[in-house]
Amino acid sequence: MRLFDSEPQKIQSQLARRDESIDGDLVEVTLDSYHDHLSAFIFRLSPAGARRDAAISARGDQDNSWDAVWEGSATRDSLGWSAEFRIPLSQLRYDPNQLEHTWGLQLDRKIARKAEVAFFSFTPKSEQQGIHRYGHLTGLGKLPSPRRVELVPYALAKNENPGVARNDPLQKRNNVVPGAGLDLKYGHTSNFTLDATFNPDFGQVEVDPAVVNLSAFETFFPERRPFFVEGASIFSFGEMRTQNTSNGYTFLHTRRIGRQPQRFLGGPNVTFVDAPLETTIATAGKLTGRTPGGWSIGVLDAFTMREQARYLDAASAQHRATVEPRANYLVGRVKRELREGNTTIGLGATAVNRSLDDPALEPIFRRAAYVGGLDWNHAWSNRRYAFDGAIAVTHNLGSAEAIDALQLSSVRYLQRPDRVHNRRDPTKTSLTGYVAEMTFAKLAGLHWKGSVSYQEYSPTFEINEAGFLGSTDMRSVTPLIYYDETRPSKYLRNWSQFLFWNPTWTFDGDMTYNGVGSLTFAEFPNFWNYFLRLDWRPPVYDAFLTRGGPMAGLASGGGIQMELTTDRRKPYTFGLFGSRSWNSAGGRGTTIQPSATLRPSTALKLTLQPTYTRTHAMAQYVTAVSDATATDTYGTRYVFSTLDQHQLALVTRVDWTFTPTLSFQLFAQPLLVAADFQDYKEFARPRQFKFEVYGRDAGTISRDASGIYTVDPDGTGAAAPFTFSDRDFNRRLLRGSAVLRWEYRPGSTLFLVWQQSRFGSIGTGEFDLGRDFRELWGVPPENIFVLKGTWWIGR
Fold it and tell me: What pTM did the predictor assign?
């Protein structure tokens, strides 16, 4: 491809690691090799030779995890620049039985300094783009049917147990161990590919950021491991083309496969423990592909090993215990695409089965968990309108203790004493639930667009064995409308205005959310971008505040968010995000997040993003104490506090690309958190947001020198006193990784990895930036080093 430029000296030529985003000039070739208007493959080059490839779905979603083995190079001259692509046919999918091949073709070029993109096959902005809009590549004749066999063995050396105490008799500190494994890719036919991995290692993957979570809900971390990331889009389920929903779930969350063992060994009779940090994946495989008739099929199966831990009891006797049983994870996905991708109907299923050969495991682990669902996407009028939805059913099996743990979990709290429907039954040995969602959307048009969605999550819906779900027990209707202006004017290049409403109820009919809000996006003539969000929330109920106790009230409140970012075409880009929230009870929160992206050269990119958050929460949960005299709250006293919390994080990324095949990436995130718990108090009455502060509104409270609080809840001795520990804390954390990556030949890579983590904590609750930052570096670090090499063998 020859790319002419009248000012070649202004071409923005950037280097980047493969598949990383580029803000400079680039060119892309997209091929619909099936020529079914349903899928395509995209290949990108920058003037400096940076590469990206991706698979594209019928709706235009890009799966950047798809990696082909191909070559590309670019050169600059006095006329502009040129790009050359060398793509083996073995990396594409097509029907080899055709006598005369015709492929869909799209070419596009980005000129960064003009913020301009030129397309070979153009679609007006008021209409939906997509593969069905591509042009045609003809004259290919009959293409061969190449054999696709790829083997990627790896070998590594890794140090283990860097943070083990020196007096630990069970583990050797900084134990260097070798490792080996194999990845296989086999093109069973021209349409289907089998991927398999044996004893995989993902030590080169970027670490998760540090977090401090004081809520009852699990923190979601995205999948980063290459085997599970690549081709993951074919397993996606229930996607709806809407911009406003009240809840969501992840049908397949592959972070569940190989996670940290779930059984914890501790207590006064345990002195030292040698437990694995992750569950070994013995083997995993997936078969993916598409038939000429428009059927997309995906099957994934993974087998994880039984994990055991060693521990010493108080008498120094050594024992072994299973902390994670053997398990098999099976996922199936089938989609039928009709009307050139305008209509899709699909089925999805997951099955998790465990071998519970130890009776001690039965109260902890479920024996089996199954999910099955139907989803659809339907568009018409040249994809101007869409009707999407999904229905899924879950069924979990296990002992009465294991199923009761599901009912008690923060996802649903079926033990809530004032619940009317779906009450807890501790004798159950199975749990079955469902979710139903649908949306109607106007996707295209000159200005006005929008959607309205309906969601229903039954209280017994449970998908967390192979998926991810934060909370359930809700029904909602979520309308959204927006006005979009893409024609530049004197004051704005483009702008959009959104209005939305999110009324949400439980299955008992209690309204738990009723937010109304607006969003404004605008781009100025100087290419600066502006964002504004306004929210207002009237009083509603909160089913989770007491963490299994009675329904609470929730005070009215509101919020504002603003962000301003400078011209992304420039080598130095800056941004500032700020938010402020409040409620009528006196709670408030503030977040300030400046950011800077610096590109001092075409090869170096530095990103800095400090975030400071200050929270003043009026109802931070502390504990619950059984007391028959607490008749207003069903025989339990729910203890809360006012919380003042400071949190400061600094995300730092360095991307240094020496050549298109040699790069260095650094990620570091120090995190300082101080939490000061004040005014310990008691939840007063159900369905209200009222509390009685101990020592002022009710009873007495005292604190001893060791930090233990003693509470006499009514001050008369009629109610039994109880105790709890001081919750104040200061935590200093650091998570970081550095990866040197060299693709020394196509498909073959050498990694040198350094990971470091630090964790320290004290109990003051006072935020002192200078002191906390200094003491963070005084915390002994845990360092992990990995040297890993892969060798691609293919034909």
Answer: 0.86
| 228 φ/ψ angles, rounded to the nearest 5 degrees | -85, -25
Helix (H) or strand (E) holding 406: helix 400-408
Report angle CA 741, 742, 747 to the nearest 5 degrees.
Answer: 110
d(CA 55, CA 230): 10
Indicate the residue type of 710. Answer: T
732, exposed or middle or buried, with CB in 10 Å at 0-12, 13-18, 19+?
buried
* DSSP assignment of 199-239: S---TTSPPPPP----SSSPPP-----HHHHTTGGGG----
In sequence order, what DSSP letters do the residues of 574-599 get, joined into one string? EEEEEEEEEETTS-EEEEEEEEEEE-
Q: What is the pLDDT averaged over residues 166-186?
A: 77
Q: What angle do CA 338, 342, 348 make, to 5 degrees?
A: 65
The pLDDT tens digits of the residues spanning 739-755 come to 999 988 887 888 888 88
Q: What's the token pair of residue 678? A: 């004040």
Sign of CA dihedral 702, 708, 714, 715: negative
Q: What is the pLDDT of residues 125-168, one digit of tens each?
A: 778 778 888 999 998 888 887 667 778 888 877 776 566 667 77
Highest mean pLDDT among 29-38, 154-163, 507-516: 507-516
781 secondary structure, DSSP code: P
**What is the pLDDT at residue 351?**
97
Contact of 640 with 691, CB cutoff 8 Å: yes
- SS3 (DSSP) at 609: strand
